[in-house]
Amino acid sequence: MAESTIRTGCREITSGKKETASRRLRKKGGGRKPLVEKDGELLNLLDALVEPTSRGDPMSPLRWTCKSTRRLAEELTKSGHPVSHAKVGQLLAALDYSLQGTRKRMEGKSHPDRNAQFEFIYNKVKEFQKRKQPVISVDTKKKELIGRFTNGGYEYQPKGKPEEVETYDFPSMADGKGIPYGVYDMGKNMGWVSVGTDHDTADTAQFAVHTIRQWWFQMGLEAYPRSKELLITADGGGSNGSRNRLWKYELQRFADETQLAVNVCHFPPGTSKWNKIEHQMFSHITKNWRGRPLTSHEVIVNLIASTTTETGLKINAKLDSNEYPTGIKIPDKKIKELNLIKDKFHGEWNYIIKNR
User: Fold this and answer.
1) What does the DSSP assignment read for 65-114?
2) Are residues 212 and 339 in the same domain?
């Protein structure tokens, strides 16, 4: 600091004069002008670069590249509007932009009777439960690699001694796959999971119906000894899909074997996440084995069977090593022989298969 400045300060202190609020060190209006005042087009150009599909040129060079502040500053400078990457960050905040990830919301075009089908299923479930008839939700859980692979989540271990797993989780390094197919009893809060094997079992309609058969004879029959009907809610695709001929053919065999009238309601396209089993059973299974490598089919079965909740969920699980070949075709003649009754409301989604 200059000596003259110090002397001036000392004189002000000894004189007893107070600094007035009106005294200014700089003339009003002086100093560097804000960048947005000097360059009136800057904000609009930045807005167009960040969101080119709805504002500005849809062929913007940033349409197909990352939109980092440095990249944005570079593009603006090239177009004759010099600006720093730090200033770009400030301007983006002023334009109400923020760093965000993606959100899973788009399910494709919904069916016009989507809500009506949900209401139909809701009323059907209530009707069955009122008459104390079994209602189950069925689905396949995602296939799991067998081996010492990373499994999302954390588990308590001695400090500094985490479970060691493979660096990569390529399918070729696995000892096979586990294919869990589940049955969730909505009325009893109980479930059954059959774990198929990769080498012998494929995710087919035969596997799906055999799992339902296992549930019925191991759990369902004891819980509903006088039942003559069964309601199944299922997705519209996959091994239990509404267009799957083998699914209907196998359900007919199941109905003949058990003498049950099997009612089926499929969820509309694109709504699989609303299937009850996803939230009431599969989500808890995932939590139970988080952070633990699924090193064998037996480990998967044991972890599934040990899954419980505060609401009293109970699950039985069993390894299914049966062979279920793929590519089975059911001819029209066999389909015509089915004792299948379609509902007046979307018979492709709602139908009954009675015993013959």
Assistant:
1) S---HHHHHHHHHHTT----HHHHHHHHHHTT------------SPPTTH
2) yes
Q: What's the structural domain count of the chain?
A: 2
Q: What is the pLDDT along the chain (356 residues), one digit of tens a residue?
A: 788 888 888 888 887 665 555 555 556 666 677 777 778 788 888 877 776 443 344 444 444 445 678 888 888 898 888 999 898 888 888 877 776 666 665 555 677 888 889 899 999 999 999 999 999 999 988 777 776 655 665 454 555 555 555 554 556 556 677 788 999 999 999 999 999 886 556 679 999 999 999 999 999 999 999 999 999 999 888 899 999 999 999 999 999 999 999 999 999 887 777 788 888 888 888 887 776 777 788 888 888 898 888 888 999 999 998 888 888 999 999 999 999 999 999 999 999 999 98
Residues 6+ apart with CB under 8 A from 210: 194, 250, 320, 322, 324
Shared domain check, 220 and 74: no
Q: Is residue 90 part of a domain?
A: yes
Please say whether the beta carbons of 108 and 270 come within 8 A: yes
Question: Strand pairing partners for 231?
Answer: 135, 263
How far is 255 from 240, CA to CA, in rounded Å?
16
Domain assignment of residue 181, given as a range:
114-353
Same-domain status, 190 and 126: yes
**68 and 126 housed in the same domain:** no
Distance CA 294, CA 301 (A): 10
Asked whether residue 13 is assigned to any structural domain, the reply reads: no
Q: State how far the Cα of 40 lies from the Cα of 32, in Å rounded to an integer.
A: 15
What's the CA gap between 280 and 262, in Å, rounded?
A: 22
Clarify whether residues 79 and 167 are in a common domain.
no
Boundary-marking domain end, from 51, 68, 99: 99
